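SAMPLE LOG
Freezer: B-3
Tube label: C17
Construct: single chain, 297 aa
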Amino acid sequence: MARPQLSAVAELLKPITWFPPMWAFACGVVASGVAFGERWWMIVLGVLLAGPLVCATSQAVNDWFDRHVDAINEPHRPIPSGRMPGRWGLYIALIWTLLSLVVASALGPWGFGAAVLGLALAWAYSAPPLRLKLNGWWGNAACGVCYEGLAWVTGAAVMAGGAMPDERSLLLAALYSIGAHGIMTLNDFKSVDGDRQMGVGSLPVRLGVNRAARVACWAMAIPQAVVVIALLGWGQAVHAGVVAVMLLAQLLLMRRFLERPAERAVWYSGFGVLLYVLGMLASAFALRASGFEGAGL
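STRUCTURE (predicted):
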């Protein structure tokens, strides 16, 4: 049987997509309030698990079950182009799933449980019979939970020795998960034609490009506004100001994005999402500064 080249395997696992969950895990670590040196090896394993393992698995699973859609939208990808021969795309997805579980077992019950949930959602998103991505509302919600909230909570819990994160940390993780729904919608603008032909009900297909763009912007903006209000309520005015500035800059970019959403979705992802995650880190430092994390209410 022909085997894929390492370059095709790397392309299948899409390292560029690993950043969001790795960043979210790091935000959870920051929010935990625990000194980084105390559990440095768990930070390394957690970042490895969040990005190169669980997220990479989700990319392999998605490409395998999306190979017919990709043949229309992006025929240059490893599987439709033939650079990933036979059923190697599926084999790699299975191998990476098992490898993720092995590494997760070293992170205790929270790390292992989070990996199981993340992997389950990754397969449910792309694989039948659930194939959540056929519905842009459910599919994007699953991605938002995995990429932001689950990774954040895992980072905080692992650093705290398995203790339940503070309610404020859980709230911020939930809000940034909701906002990530909009980020996931931005990724769907590049594949509208193929999705429509293959029956993939992304939000741009379901709502139309212009309406989906507005929904994505609202989904990103409203949770961040709530974060600003929450930080102010917790006495963290400086950090709230940083998040507010990041949000204001996004709103300015959103105006330009909404003029031509189909053409500018990738552009907005490059700049708007960066501002989004910087605000996310600022909110994590707000918890660290306040000493709330792990202290309870």
